[in-house]
Structure formats: C-alpha cells, structure tokens
Amino acid sequence: MSRVLLGVLLVAIVGSGIAVAYERYRHRQLFVELTKRERERDELNIEFGRLQLEQATWAQANRIDQVARERLGMKFPEAEDIVVVRQ
Length: 87
Description:
mainly alpha; 2 helices; 77% helix; membrane; transmembrane helix; Cell_div_FtsL; cell inner membrane; transmembrane
C-alpha cells in the first residue's frame, strides 16, 4: 500500500512541477505580448496626437481663408454688395 501511495505522490509531484514550468512559460509569453501591445498603444497615441495637431492646423480660420481665396477664387464682398434683410 505504501508503494502505491509513494507512486501516486511521485506522479503528483512530477505533474505539479510540469504544471508550474508550463505556467511560467505561459506567463513569459503573455508578458511579451503585453509589452508589445503597450508599445503599439504608445505609438498609436503619438500618431493620434500628431493627427490632432494636423487637424487643428488645417482647421485654422486663416488657412480656410487662404484655401477659399486661392483654390475657389472667393473673396469678401464689397460694402456696396452687402444687403441687410430685416423682418
């Protein structure tokens, strides 16, 4: 009976050791994946900041005025061309 118990305990110890080794390996894999994802997140945040800055630049009033004048040939109306409508 004690040999059977010793065998069971030996199998349990070996199984436990294998499980610990596998979980450490899996932990390393997940940590590497987490580090990679954090790096990607940081790069995306930097790109998002750049895009926000670019959008702010393109949306400035003087930029819109410049594009309206150059590309669309628009201009402010002369004083005599302005009509005020009142009700």
